[in-house]
Amino acid sequence: MRIGVLTAGGDCPGLNAVIRSVVHRAVAQYDDEVIGFEDGYAGLLDGRYRALDLNAVSGILARGGTILGSSRLERDRLREACENAADIARDFGIDALIPIGGEGTLTAARMLSDAGLPVVGVPKTIDNDISSTDRTFGFDTAVGVATEAMDRLKTTAESHQRVMVVEVMGRHAGWIALESGMAAGAHGICLPERPFDPADLVKMVEERFARGKKFAVICVAEGAHPADGTMDYGKGEIDQYGHERFQGIGTALAHELEKRLGKEAKPVILGHVQRGGTPTAYDRVLATRFGWHAVEAAHRGDFGKMTALRGTEVVMVPLAEAVTELKTVPIDRMDEAESVF
Ligand code: F6P
Questions:
Q1: Is 245 a residue whose pLDDT tops 70?
Q2: Which of 85, 88, 151, 195, CA to CA, is 20 to 30 A from 331?
Q3: Closest Cα to atom 15 of ligand 1
Q4: pLDDT at 237
Q5: pTM score, whole prediction
Q6: Measured in angstroms, how far is the CA atom of residue 140 from the centroid of ligand 1?
């Protein structure tokens, strides 16, 4: 069998662990040939690829990023790929394509699968927002990075009696904010799923200071919005990939709190630090298992599906089911976090 693999969309710790696992399983177990397309679907459309043998994936398990490169696909190019799906498989002689990516990549994978390409998807995203899988690799690493950052910010905040507003990633789903905020003992958490009122945060900080506590840490997801009429904060424009260009909620909220509290409030934007660097042990294991199961699925001819974690088992779920809705944070999970503020 000849298998094509690619990584698309925003990168994420653990991508290399999947690539390595695919190559090991395919080559060692089945004597397959594996090729890696460069820079996501762009490499597939432009015919840029390289052979991946055991040597090519040696030493990459713990490496962040992706050795294949990644990119987001513009809608026009996706249409082009779908129109040529049958030719693509024939031109490259591939019997299976394993795209590793988030919501956008898996939606494209589904369209390519519907257009006739034999596809087995592997979900990834630090946001953990893909329905049908309990976890995506990369999330554990991102939560660890954000938690460590908040632990560190607490000590400096206390020395200077400051409020720290820590902005973490999470466009539509606040999983990173929820879990890193809980793990770090943040005093406020703002999620995209529930508009917040800055007045509640002001009250929380004032009560803390009245109790003799001299600092506060607030964890805010980049996609969080204030409730209507509570604070000046506009919605951003939509870019060519269909994503809102955020206006910087961390900075806006820190300024707002400083104005209302008369205390120093500092914004800290963690940004892509959460996506870089070595994956945690958990993410390496999950990524390796997903790669193994993707190759098995390809050999069974189980196409149009993606790997998913259900409890502790890796199962295959239809791509159609996986990309219909985002997995957002249920409100009762927020209640659990708030009980310890
Ligand atoms: O989807 C993963 C993600 O990291 C989001 O949390 C974030 O909004 C987005 O990607 C950032 O994308 P880019 O790297 O294109 O700025």
A1: yes
A2: 151
A3: 10
A4: 77
A5: 0.95
A6: 16
